[in-house]
Design brief:
The protein is mostly helical. The chain has two domains: 3-51, 50s Ribosomal Protein L19e, Chain O, domain 1, CATH 1.10.1650; 75-134, Non-ribosomal Peptide Synthetase Peptidyl Carrier Protein, Chain A. Helix content is 58%, strand content 4%. Helix 7 packs antiparallel against helix 8.
Length: 142
């Protein structure tokens, strides 16, 4: 059988790509005498047909300490994640409802503030309260 067929069968047996299979140049006669998969397995056992090791990528060559230093996302995304976001948003929305219920915030401002909360405009309830006071949206309690 031809050398290309032997390479294809060897790749399948070894579980690698065809490009990683190599044939021993000194024993090409033996390679072409192979007729079955069993013959190819025999050539692999003898070392006439072999697979070259996989090349290591640049990330594999780096020290683990260097790889660990890579960060993805902004600081907020890395620290708390979704659960921290949910806690913050829910507390701000509850505070908004409290302000509306007590009459401190007119209902006309509800939608704009709600959308600002949703957009992450406020770091917390205190920042939200400061924004409302700064923009004179709050009125004294009744």
């Amino acid at each position: 059988m031809s050398a290309t067929t032997v390479k294809r069968l060897a790749a399948d047996i070894l579980g690698v790509g065809v490009n990683r299979v190599r044939l021993d140049k000194d024993n090409l006669g033996k390679v072409e005498e192979a007729l079955t998969r069993a013959d190819v397995r025999g050539l692999i056992d003898e070392g006439v047909v072999y697979a070259i090791p996989k090349k290591a990528g640049h990330r594999t060559q780096e020290k683990p300490r260097q790889r660990r230093g890579r960060r993805k996302g902004n600081k907020k995304a890395r620290t708390g994640g979704k659960s921290a976001w949910m806690v913050r948003i829910r507390s701000q929305r509850a505070y908004l409802e409290t302000l509306l219920g007590s009459g401190e915030l007119p209902k006309a401002h509800k939608r704009t503030i709600y959308l600002k909360i949703k957009g992450g405009a406020f770091k917390g309830k205190a920042a939200m309260r400061a924004y409302l006071a700064e923009n004179r949206m709050l009125k004294p309690k009744e």
